[in-house]
Design brief:
Helix content: 25-40%
Radius of gyration: 22 Å
Shape: globular
Bound molecules: adenosine-5'-diphosphate
CATH superfamily of the largest domain: Putative sugar-binding, N-terminal domain
Number of domains: 2
Strand order of the largest sheet: 9-10-5-11-4-1-3-2-16-17-18-15-12-14-13
CATH class of the largest domain: Alpha Beta
CATH topology of the largest domain: Rossmann fold
Number of strands: 18
Number of helices: 14
CATH architecture of the largest domain: 3-Layer(aba) Sandwich
Strand content: 15-25%
């Protein structure tokens, strides 16, 4: 095991894992911190997925340290703290406090911080985070319900969250390549800075930053800055050639299904597109606001239709219908009703032999994974950017192939493409 990663949310963990797999590493995502006696999966990178982004600070720090200690005992040589490419956090945390705890536990005294992800239009210039051409605080992120980002200057943002001080490696240095970046970071560390925000505008910048951080105990950032890490391990002779195939998953045959609980625009159009080729069951929680009844309906519909060709079961609805249910039940109860129903349907489908399952929706995926008792996900090749097939190992029962899709991810033909892949 080479790289031990701690991710502050579930889909962010998958995003990072996918990046490492693309670089030829074998990656396994773990759902929460494993127990001390749990086996260490055979992989080059292990990514512990936490729910620490918006947790109370103390809890986020404790969970992150527990993940760190487990990963260190598992043999990790380098550590990566993954957060969102929009630096989602508040003045209380949790990026600063978690990074502080990790640098202290490692005794390394310094870490770089770089959320840039040019492929998703996130760049950092003169310490300022841009989303496309907009500064972070004008990108819509200033209105985020949990982590409103009202300052694009990451040196300032991180300074407010840490007991240490924060410097900058500016673009003019980054553009000169790995050696110049390494020198600048060493200089900042010698000045007593605990962190360096590092500018990055292109993938080539990220690769150079990764190379410059080869000997760092801890790297913090978005998944983008992990881009250069596989090459470091390869240069050190610790990782085989990129063509060795990090993405190979165990073969899984059997019945197939799609479950959709996302009401995001991309998912709605993916369901629309699927109707031309696949059978779709539209659940109507407004007409049947009862999880057990929805499960029974879905199973009665699916039973005669299950096969190698996937069936699609969707609770997804237009914003008007979602609002109507929320008005009747309350926002949280409406979400929970649908999540409970879809998780129950997933469980029943797996009991009936479904072994290949696509789930649309971040919260929905979380509910399904926890209901199915999934312990770890071995990450395979991407179906669309950010959404790989994975092989799920469970605490009990057969292994499954799962593709967990954040609502707005994937092309219009995602559900069809997933099973052709
Ligand atoms: P996304 O990734 O698109 O945000 P999520 O699964 O995270 O998708 O969130 C969608 C939420 O909407 C879930 O809590 C789900 O239970 C809820 N939901 C799905 N369908 C309906 C519906 N018809 N009415 C109300 N809420 C719904």
């Amino acid at each position: 095991m080479l790289l031990g990663c701690i991710a502050d949310d579930f889909t962010g963990a998958t995003d990072l894992a996918s990046m490492l797999v693309r670089g030829g590493m074998r990656a396994v995502q773990l759902i929460g911190v494993p127990g001390a006696d749990d086996p260490v999966p055979d992989a080059d990178a292990l990514i512990v997925a936490l729910k620490s982004r918006t947790a109370p600070v103390g809890e986020a720090v404790a969970d992150s340290l527990a993940a760190f200690h487990w990963l260190r005992a598992a043999g990790a040589r380098q550590f990566f703290f993954k957060y969102c490419s929009t630096f989602d956090s508040t003045d209380e945390g949790n990026i600063g406090p978690v990074a502080d705890a990790l640098t202290e536990a490692l005794g390394c005294g310094f870490a770089l911080a770089c959320p840039a992800f040019p492929a998703n239009a996130r760049s950092v210039y003169q310490g300022h985070l841009f989303v496309g051409s907009m500064l972070l605080n004008e990108s819509g992120m200033e209105n985020h319900p949990l982590t409103p980002m009202r300052d694009a200057n990451l040196v300032r943002v991180l300074s407010r969250q840490t007991t240490g001080t924060v410097g900058l490696v500016p673009f003019a240095t980054v553009a000169q390549g790995a050696q110049a970046i390494r020198r600048a970071m060493t200089g900042l560390k010698e000045q007593g800075r605990r962190y360096a925000i590092v500018d990055a505008v292109t993938d080539a910048d990220l690769v150079a930053i990764g190379e410059a951080a080869e000997s760092h105990a801890l790297i913090t950032g978005g998944s983008g800055v992990a881009m250069g890490l596989p090459a470091n391990f390869r240069r050190a002779g610790l990782l085989p050639d990129a063509s060795a195939g990090g993405a190979a998953l165990p073969e899984v045959g059997g019945l197939a299904a799609v479950l959709a609980g996302s009401c995001s625009r991309a998912t709605l159009s993916q369901i629309g597109r699927a109707r031309a080729e696949l059978e779709v069951c539209d659940l109507d929680p407004l007409a049947t606001p009862d999880a057990d009844a929805l499960i029974a309906q879905a199973l009665a519909w699916a039973a005669p239709r299950l096969g190698e060709t996937p069936v699609v079961i969707a609770a997804s609805a237009t914003p008007e219908r979602v609002a109507a249910l929320q008005e009747r039940m309350g926002r949280a109860a409406a979400g929970e009703l649908v999540e409970t129903a879809l998780a129950g349907i997933a469980d029943a489908l797996v009991a009936r032999g479904v072994r290949r399952l696509v789930v649309a929706g971040g919260e929905t995926s979380g509910a399904v994974v926890s209901r199915l008792g999934v312990r770890s996900l071995r990450i395979g090749a991407e179906i669309d950017p950010g959404v790989p097939w994975t092989y799920a190992e469970r605490t009990e029962g057969a292994g499954l192939k799962l593709a967990l899709k954040s609502g707005n991810f994937g092309a219009a033909d995602f559900f069809i493409k997933a099973f052709a892949a």
